[in-house]
Automatic annotation (TrEMBL):
Compartments it resides in: Membrane
Residues annotated as transmembrane: 45-62, 69-89, 101-124
GO CC annotations on file: plasma membrane
Major location (coarse): membrane
Assigned keywords, A-Z: Membrane, Transmembrane, Transmembrane helix
Residue stretches in coiled coil: none
Stored Pfam families: DUF423
Topology within the bilayer: Multi-pass membrane protein
Name the UniProt record assigns to this protein: Uncharacterized membrane protein YgdD, TMEM256/DUF423 family
Signal peptide location: none
Species this protein is from: Christiangramia echinicola
Protein family per UniProt: Belongs to the UPF0382 family.
Amino acid sequence: MNRRFLIAGAMFGLTAVILGAFAAHGLKGAISAESLNSFETGVRFQMYHAFLLLILGGYNFLSPKNINWIFYLICSGILLFSGSIYLLSTGTIFSINFKPIALLTPLGGSLLIIGWIILLLNFIKLKKK
């Protein structure tokens, strides 16, 4: 078991539920339907990756080097991808132009993709053994 994966997965899952409830009850009508849809996309991706962290936290099949890379890529990816979407979606509420951070969204998505690629390569190596 990997405690930090389990803690991170639980924290990201908890905040995804809170933010999802906030979107459904607090943001409806306060932001456009398009922005609400984007916000919900951020919540959905955060929850998917929270589950991934919880699953990986229960197994010990990855090398310490790879597990570190995957952990930091997934956590950073969630923060950049979902976090930037949350800010971009709610900018009108706060009267703040978050558009300058828009490039963080694809950067975060790229980090998530790289984490999945490293995981896939590790699974391919498992098959060869």
